[in-house]
Fold:
Amino acid sequence: MTENSLTQGSIFKKLFALAIPIMGTSFVQMAYNMIDMIWVGKLGSGAVAAVGTAGFFTWLAMAFIIIPKVSAEVGVAQAVGKKDMDEARVYIKHSIQLIIFLALTYAFILLTFRKSLVGFFNLGDEEVINSTITYLVIIALGLVFYFINPVFSAIFNGYGDSKTPFRINVIGLVINMILDPLLILGIGPFPRLEVAGAAIATIIAQIIVTIIFIIKARKRNELFSNLDLLGKPDRNHMNKITKLGFPVALQSAFFTIIGMVLARIIADWGTVAIAVQKVGSQIESISWMTAGGFETAMSTFTGQNYGAKEWDRVRRGYFTGIAIVSCIGIIATILLIFGAQPIFMVFIQEEEAVRYGVDYLRILGVSQLFMCIEIATTGAFNGLGRTIPPSVVGIVFNLSRIPLALFLSSTSLGLNGVWWAISISSVFKGSFLCIWYIISLKKIK
Structure:
């Protein structure tokens, strides 16, 4: 356990060593969707709109995944800091039990109400609607694997071992990369399944990742021995897990629902605008996934040092992390503003889509620094076990996007007004949350 301890040694080196594999894992998870978009993009804007629209429901799934994920990450990290592995195993057991239950429940909802859920977006194109439903059904059938893998990753990350989930997820990505063109375009003996092929490739990759995680878990007795997953859950620990993860889950749910409402607004500009938003958000996710690696690293680092009562390392760790993610944010701004056209054209080459896409990337590029600061600060708050402040800031300013988007898009800005609403709210979120955490640091004893 000593090699995974973050309570001693250089803060910069510990944070960086922990964050790099987590960032890699985040990129791998992002790459699943991005690779799908690249290959599906060859089928046209309609196919991209279908996969992107169905993607809202896997995005919404994060609201369910986050509850056991955060509790596993923070609970294991603080238990490791206290050198109490029995407590760590209790968090692991209950997190796995909860994620399986949530996965089955959410899959049932998606399968039962699939037509009504897709109908909400008012897509208007029957072919796009049918493709969206097909993609959604296939993903729902394999949702247990999609849900459980982030929790396995969180357990290892909370323990201080971020390399194992990275390696396992890379294997899944490689499998997805191989299967995507084969199943989407029907290369060789494989049938041309188009949008359905993208979904099948993703699920097969996720199943293999789960199998490898289980094999690795059987070799890590200090974490996974005597879990008794079929045993009755302890109500007190389930309450702790829910209390810790629910504010983050609520924020995630609001974020996704608000995104759906914005998508409904964007739909007024047609299928091309919908496809641009899906592709543009995938490109922008490069920066927030990178910062997301430091969010998890900050959560684990802060959790272990908080559990060990190393208050000075908690403080210094935050400012070290913020310095790192600020560099990421500035680089992302430069790339999105000055490299918008060539970057966007990797995904779609249609002239109208490129024109909209360049505007999207340049406007969102303005807020990248603040977005990175917000993400890293969220991780620091989570490590303290204080998940409410980031949720309050996130929900309030994300909600402001809807009236702001409606107002700005009704002016001469048009569709660009929606993008500005997103960018402006990100600036405020990063600023407010950073100030709140600095004030909170002064109260830590």
